[in-house]
Specification:
Blueprint lengths: L5 E2 L2 E2 L7 H8 L6 E4 L6 H9 L5 E6 L2 H10 L7 E5 L17 E7 L4 H5 L25 H7 L2 H10 L6 H13 L6 H11 L4 H16 L2 H15 E11 L2 H13 L21 E3 L9 H6 L7 E7 L1
Parallel strand pairs: 3-4, 3-6, 4-5, 6-7
Antiparallel strand pairs: 1-2, 7-9, 8-9
Helix pairs in contact: 1-2, 6-7, 7-8, 8-9, 10-11
The structure holds S-adenosylmethionine.
S-adenosylmethionine binds next to helix 2 and strand 4.
Amino acid sequence: MTSESSVEGHDVWHEPVMAEEIAGLLVNRSTRLVVDCTVGAGGHAARLLDAAPQQSVLYGLDLDRDALRLAGERLSRFGERVVLKRMNFSELDLALPERLAGKVDALLIDCGISKLQIVTPGRGFSFDREGDLDMRFDQAGTVTAGSFLAVIDANELRSLLVQFGERANAKRIARAVIRRRDEGRLKTTLDLARAVKSVVKNKAAKSMARTFLAIRERVNCELENLVKALGHLPQVMAVGGRACIISYHSEEDRIVKRYFRRLSGKCVCPPGRIVCDCGKAAVFRLVTPKPLSPTAGEIGRNPSARSAKIRVVEKM
Ligand SMILES: C[S@@+](CC[C@H](N)C(=O)[O-])C[C@H]1O[C@@H](n2cnc3c(N)ncnc32)[C@H](O)[C@@H]1O
């Protein structure tokens, strides 16, 4: 980072999505313990701490050391009310001291990437900025986009692209990327973008976004981490505590929807199954039976909020 708040002239302060609504849904006068599993630049955390009583404490987790530095700066006015930890939210059960197990009143997972990560070219998340093929949230992680692309074959890449919504052009994009790699011309983010553009003439930006998303998801095991974190909710949440997940694409939302339905006592077995074996149990109450989305006004101010969906449950 060139300064605490900008990278090459770009502001790095991530605009938190639906922050007012989320604070209203998660926090009340009896809130004592808040966990922000994806503290990022601390935008949601600041809003939650402002809305919660003075005696409350927030644990903020993130894998990204630069994000934690920014969060520390933004949240410094809350003093000892904030504890920041560099860790994977898939290990949510280990985030809190033992005495706080089962005591979380409010918990947030804001999936996806932060503005800091997008605008920092060296991180490799952006298809219109030259950078290394990196895409790791955790700078100490061993798998990068480059190392992933070095070993994948065209069929696997095609399936991955289809999973993340790039149906029509998946085969052509996968072949173009692998051809470029085999010719030794896949070194940077713009090389990857060029491979996509070489075979997609219409709406190439959408295809590039989906290609980058699919690779990023795999590099960071995002869906697996989400599943693991959700699995810890019954143990970490207090009775009456609320958890909110913000997802940004259908694969993520499907996981959250299915998990919340199952643990609010609704069957998620495939249609036609005679004996239910999905493990449904009434552990949570669905606070948002349908997901909530940002208003047109918010999307106008913050276009990156456009695909956000939030779902909230309350522990019974
Ligand atoms: C959309 S940003 C969060 C922005 C934040 N809500 C704010 O208001 O600034 C998502 C953050 O989650 C972090 N992250 C992604 N996967 C993670 C994981 N498995 N464990 C911990 N942090 C993760 C990313 O590094 C990123 O900083």
